[in-house]
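Today's session is about reading a structure prediction critically. Students often jump straight to the picture, but the first step is always the sequence itself: look for stretches that repeat, for charged clusters, for runs of hydrophobic residues. Only then move on to the predicted structure, which in these notes is written as discrete structure tokens rather than atom positions. Here is the chain we will use throughout the hour.
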Amino acid sequence: MIDLNYTLWIQMVNFLVLIFILYVLLYKPILNIIDKRESVIDESKERVRSLEQAAGDKMAQYDEQLRQARSEAAGQRDELKEEGSQTAKQIMQAARNEIAETISDLKAKMEREREEARAILREKTKDIALEISEKVLGRGV
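Below is the predicted structure for this chain, in token form.
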């Protein structure tokens, strides 16, 4: 039969002290590391979202400029048709060249900005991945 004497109380105190020591030395530091890692990941995701938002804004701006350029070109084309056949042909050719140049300039600018945004995202992704790897592994990579 089981005796319920003072050793039961000693064992209970022993158990509670062990739980407290494990909490302070093991569980709490691990939970802190996990919280820090999650906050770094959240910050990284927020940075990525903001960079994606900036890229989207630049795309919208590019589309708006393209729409305006097309709108202006259409207006110019209508005016030129009214003036006369020979003069209209010369002006329309100049407008087409200007539009083509504007569109190519805008496309080149957009491509540069897109590549810059991608480079920034790639750079940040590598830094974040390296940082996460170091934290998970607990040593430098």
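Discussion point for the tutorial: DSSP finds two helices and no strands in the chain.
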